[in-house]
Sequence to fold (973 residues):
Amino acid sequence: MGKVVNAIEYRPARQPIDPRDLVRMQLVEVGQPLDPRQVAATLDRLYSTGLYDDLQVDARESGNGVVVTFITKARRFIGHVGAQGHISDPPSRAIIISNAQLSLGTPFDEDDLIAARKTIEQELRTNGLFESKVDYVTITDPETQQVTIRFLVDSGKRARYDTPAITGETKLSDATIIRATGWRIPLIHRWRRVTQSLTDKGINGIQQRYAKKNRLTASVDLESVDYDADRRRATPHINIDAGPKVTIKALEAKISKSKLRKYVPVYQEGSVDNDLLAEGASNLRDYFQARGYPDVDVTFHSEEPKNDEQIINYYIATGPRRKLVNVDIVGNDYFLPETLEERMFLRPKSLALRYGRYSESFRKKDEEAIENLYQANGFRDVRVTSTVDTNYKGKPNDLSVQFRINSGKQWRVANLRIDGTARLDLSPIMRELTSAEGQPYSDVNIATDRNRILDYYYSNGFPGATFRYVTTPDPDTQTVSVVYQITEGPREFVRQVIISGLYRTRPSLVTKRIDLKSGEPISMVKVNGIARNLNDLGIFASVNSAIQDPDGTNLYKTVLYDIDEAARYSFNVGFGLQVGRFGGTTTNIGAAGGSSGISPIVAFDVSRVNFLGRGQTLSLQTRYSRLEQRESINYIVPRLFGSFDRTLTFSVLYNTTQDVQTFSSRRAEASMQVSQRLNRASTLLVRFAYRRVSTGRVEIPSLLIPSLLQPVRIGLLSTSYIQDHRDNPADAHRGFWNTVDAGLAGNFFGSQRNFYRILARNATYTSIGRNLVFARQTQLGAIMPFNMAPDQTTFESIPLPERFFGGGGVSMRGFGDNQAGPRDIGTPASPGVPAAVATGFPIGGNGLFFNNLELRFPLLGPNISGVLFHDMGNIYSNFSDISFRYRQNGIQDFNYAVQAAGFGIRYKTPLGPVRVDLAYTLNPSSYLGFNRNETIQDLIKCNPNDPNPGPNCLASPQRLARFQFFFSIGQAF
Fold:
């Protein structure tokens, strides 16, 4: 023992360790004799925290004792890693950072930084950037010891490919090999710029070229890529060994080459060995058994290569074709039959499966599936066997499979004891444990309990918790005593939270979403959940979370969040084509029923994300076509009042639409909308819109009156409720979809028209069997005016642009786009208004009813399906006029239900199904109109009161086309 310790000092005074940890680890005490063993133990403890690079001790005399000074050098840790400069994608900035392999929160080492730079330089060269330069700078925060690393990248010019140097036994011409790479643009023969993906694709293209020549064992190696700096060209050096042609034949049974390629894996693996050939034999056996050949025998023989060819013969003895007509399960007295059947592969014959589905491997898998289910429910000794009857009910080609279950006794949990829970109370999760007293005993249940208990410990600051269990079976009572033994390990707490990577974003936007408090137990579930929520803001490219030096022995840890801010601007350009029967493409008065046409569409959007660093978005959206020109500016405030489910949107819009020949609609609108997500499937929207609507290019003389041509101000308060339980919104197979939109326009909102408006939709999707889907949709809408002007009818009081228009590929396929409903029937003369001739153009209505039925079924392969559909409904003059009548009562009656039936084809794509529909209208509308190529100006000159009107002024009965054709992306509903 030495002199008494008078004081303990640390140099520097600010230590990287939490004071609470420091007190626990410091064994040297003031007032006690200095013990070298305690000094050494203190140093060991401090070093084990991982927070120090160097530790020294100095002792100096002071009075009758000594002053002990611990001289420390804090370890630095990796913080934010970024890349900036002239970066030519590929590689992207994210790939460059990823390739650095510098993980957040790990100790900083200068050698790792040098290695990271070399890796990035290699990545750039692999992508053709041979002249690139990479440097780096580091900034250390002395308060947190976090090191910010920035890679400074100058990509330089990207090289182009040059003619490859090809060596080896190629057996193909160099020109053929070069074409297979895709490195040179066809026709113009210009070499492409080098990228890693294009290089890999080129090598793979050569491999595929050899595969097409049946050279399945060909090897294609990219040995190097030489760069010519003077010409800025990269020459790939490729060594090829073509190998022999491999011919695989199926003998004694017919099978297509495409099926052989699918089931014999040598085609996918590009090599030939006995394991792959045996797997191919097993696959072929399953294929033929599933097609009704349960006795099939498949063997193979590989001949020695000869004359540059290797022949592999599969001998397939199919035996007689049989049907699986019956599947019996005997001995099942615990589960419902459907519970077992839904886990089984075997299927008896049906409309969809002509011969049923049977194979030996399927039968064995079904035995295992039933056994596993029983074992998971306490039947430890269950045995499942199966037998096959090949002469079921005296029919030699009918199969019957019987599964016999010998379940044995059900074992249950006698009691459950949990040991080792000294610091954490498990009562909140006890009800969730599956191995409770009296419950069936199984290893699956114990594994479930293990995961739940450890998750609970990990979520409460015990990252080192471990679990083991001991069981004691009692054969007499068929019960098991279970003991869970928990080793809790040390509990870790939050010391502080460090956020890095914010440059444009206001720190408060992030800090108020990180609800970790100093001293609370570390829950990695909570830590990672906060990172996910920050990612969901949509303004960050990535959010990483980590614990600084997680393996250190200190109990108070620093939680790190490193944020990579996304690009401020995003641009989207889209092109499309609208094909169908619609108006707006001609002034021909003989096209009142719509005319077939094509309308190109161009869309351009630009968004400024994280506007002013607040996480809000300012966007400009435009859409231009022959039918519509639209521009809108939107300001989006997400997470209104701190709720992740609430969004506020301000919008300004100007829109010109000519999707119906009657008139063009102009709308200038400002609106405010609040959306509230109620749960995963339900959303509520509340909006107020103030707009000015007007009509232009009116094509109907009877509408050329001041009351319908004057611009109208509309102030509309509306709310929408959306409930979406579809399994796949782009192509639903089950679930339902409900929407209700209700609005009120009135003088109290500054509106010049007063009306209620409601539009509701209900759609359901039902799977029938395994391959059929029955889909239905019903839409109902009403516009009801109030406080009308004395000289206006209910129908006339609603401005043209505010009325319902319908018909087309997404509402009612018996009409062309927006061709449903009331049509112009002309007007007699009135004071101040001349008479007008009927044109038959659609004029919209105040009532809407549509009903759609579809039966969706597979047609050709997995990607092409068919649809049989029936559509019914119309646009009605008023809601009270809605009728399901089949027949039209006179040529001026449009308040009846039009019906159409048809057939459609769907082709599955990543964007959704491409849809083609052909509809036949059973009771198309008739109307008074014209079928001549005249303009509306010619019609204005006509006087319907003239006793001898000219031939150009005589309207005649017309009828809408019976056949309609639609082409688009996505299901009709």
